Amino acid sequence: MGGLSSPLRGRVGERGTANAGARALDDFPSVVVAKEHNALLLYAIDDAAIRAGLSIGLPLANARAICPELTVYDADEAADRKTLEDIADWCDRFTPLVALDPPHGLFLDITGCAHLFGGEAALLRTLCNALTRQGFAVSAAIAATSICARTLTHAAPGTIVADGGEADAVAALPVAALGADDAITKGLRRAGLKTIGDVAARGRHEISARFGSRFTTLLTHALGEGDAPISPRKLPPDYIVEKRFAEPIATESTISITLTSLAAMLVSAMDKQGKGARRLEAAFFRTDGAVRLIAVDTGRPVTSPEMVDRLFRERLDALNDPLDPGFGFDLIRLSASRTEIVVQEQRDLDATVHDNDELSALIDRIAARIGGKRVIVHLPQDTHIPERAALAAPAQHHLAASAQAAWPARTIGEPPLRPLRLFEKPEPIKVPFATVPDGPPHHFTWRRVTHAVVRVEGPERIAMEWWKQEGRALTRDYFRVEDEEGRRFWIFRDGLYERELADEEGKPIAANWYMHGLFA
Amino acid sequence: MSMLASLRGSIERIETHGDVHGLSKVALGHRSADAMLRGGLALAAVHEVFAEGHQGAAATGFLAGIAGRIASRKPLVWVRQDFAEVESAALSPNGLCELGLDPRLLVTVRAADVEAALRTTADALACDALGAVVLETFGDVRQLDLVASRKLTLAAQSSGVTALLLRVGASPAPSTAETRWIVRAAHSPPASPWSAWGAPVFDAQLVRNRHGPVGRWIMEWKCDERQFREPAAYPQPVAAAPAHRPHPAAARSVRRLAS
Which SS3 state, helix, strand or coil, does residue A3 take? Predict the structure, then answer.
């Protein structure tokens, strides 16, 4: 970015978000209090309280003495934070680069965006009016650096500073407007430096020596002599298309038509650069300020508008809390937040390429509907522990890997050695006794049913991975058993008789048996 | 007479309506079953496999065998209700390998409820790149009625993909399935208790066949040849399951209720 051309940043500050709901009781002053240093201090106050002579930071006891009919609310920082984020969501309509400046501020990087709203002044007016209408107290300013803009919102809201005019604009403002620590502000005032201009007139090394280099940096940025980048909440998407409505839309058919046309615009924009979308986001801006974001991930870059359209229809169809238009949406935006270069493949001659395409499109559709983690492929793992031998991975991202996977080959002529159905967590079974201590059981009880063992094969001894495991891990002896009805089970005894299964005195203890799988 | 002939003709037309792929069939490998099915299981249709709750693994094996024969080298989508996984364990890819099937072709969808599972199955059936789509549910499922089954049949007919329903712990209800099987595990051929068991053996009962008679066979799945066979030595007669004697689990719960 650099502060060279005309990077303009605005800042919206609002006071007392938490007491916005208290406005109905306008006649009586109301305040929000927070606990600080074991005392309840005023955290935010309304206009009536200002008229009554209260100020932020006053102890509650003092405030009550000044104004006995005070209505008091507790501060809720989590709710304040949430409100600030909701406002930031709403501000996404002006620029994709919105950064939080807690507790009450926002930075908007409006470089190159202002002309879309009729210039900087018009943008500032639109933004302030809309927020004021919603019941927030707003002070905003536009300047070349974020710190300069923030300083102006504290003392001279509504200012728009032309390039190079930063130092003049902030010179007359009190030092408190810089937003430095209380200690620094007090120190400056005690030193007789009342305005920012006074501070700027002193040598920088003096200021650094007394107040630290961080304050000097802050001062430099406020004067427009240097700039630090803001950290936006979201990465700017690669492609954005949007549609604004003079009259808010609410019907499902209009929304779907809009999405279709936006999909076509987005795909044609991406197509020019040979890209396809891997992650798509649709943002629905409601007239009352609420913003709903719906994202769709795909396994392969999407290049056709029909596909985009279909994915979103699946997603919108399957939402747990359906899209609520309220009084209507006035802006719908479709963005491709992750894109990839599309490799053009020959389709007609090689049928398998085509098939794979269709399969991944199907997987994308299902994943959009029920969630990417619910559509899985299996990948073999390099371990002999049965329950870890296969890893279930999201099919969207691992389809190619799973097609290349090398599974252990079966031994020709052998019956199946591993069960077809495997319990993720082995289920305990009851074994009354075994003929020989480390032999197979005659009977076992699983899920309240007793099975008589007719045929046994084993044991197959599987030791745990002691080099990975923490603590005790017992060796398992697996038996393949068949019961009187012909059903086949995979059961194991946890621990080796006498060697692992012994108490402190060396006496053998009873083993635990588990059901781990079912053979076909 | 000509009236009767024309009626027969129109019934035949209705029965084969939209059935473009109706002629292609896949042989199971079991000779007498294939003869009864006139060449094997029809593609582009719905087949149902039922089993009692405690016979789920056998039914899964039988269905996996059918799916392997039908899908051959094409991908297989297996839609499973979450509850089925709790009841009868998850499908193990290593187990599939041991049956001679390729787990690389398997895409599993874990649906939270029956509605999602049905919808996903219908979606998958519309994709003609697949070899087969399996829908696995547990217990009686109200939503899987005649209408749902008709929808699946139509989807299968229009795309040519075969739908296989695995209904463990469910009782058969009217449907538009081409065939319906009830599968139980069969004993291994008699031998000493310490000898290795052989290939999986199923007691498969064909209880519904839209275009032919029904029957009951003992089938053995040959893992290396990837097909069903008559067991080489199987002296025990195929007897009907004792209908009057309930499963021990059910019997016990009844007793507990009575006490």
Answer: coil
Closest residue of B to A459, CA-based? B194
Right CATH for B30-233 from 3.60.15.10, 3.40.50.300, 3.30.43.10, 3.40.1160.10? 3.40.50.300
For the domain made up of A239-341, give the CATH fold: Dna Ligase; domain 1 (3.30.1490)
User: Rounded distance, CA A496 to CA A493, Å?
Assistant: 8
Task: Reply yes or no on whether the pLDDT at A20 is more than 70.
Answer: no
Find chain A residues with C-beta within 8 A of B73's C-beta: none
Exposure of A199 by Cβ count < 10 A (0-12 exposed, 13-18 middle, 19+ buried)?
A: buried
CB contacts of B106 in chain A (<8 Å) are 377-378
CA distance B213 to chain A (A): 27
Q: Kindly report, residue by residue over B17-58, the tens digit of the pLDDT.
A: 544 445 689 999 998 899 888 888 999 999 999 999 899 999
Q: Which of B93, B58, B105, B70 is nearest to B227 (CA)?
A: B70
- Identify the band that residue A457 occupies on the pLDDT scale cut at 50, 70 and 90: confident
Beta carbons of A420 and B54 less than 8 Å apart: no
Rounded CA separation A357/A303 (Å): 12
- Average of per-residue pLDDT across A467-490: 85
The predicted pLDDT at position B167 comes to 93
Say whether A449 and B88 touch across the interface (CB within 8 A): no
Query: What does the pLDDT look like over B196-248, one tens digit per residue?
Result: 778 899 999 999 998 888 999 999 999 888 999 988 765 544 544 444 555 55
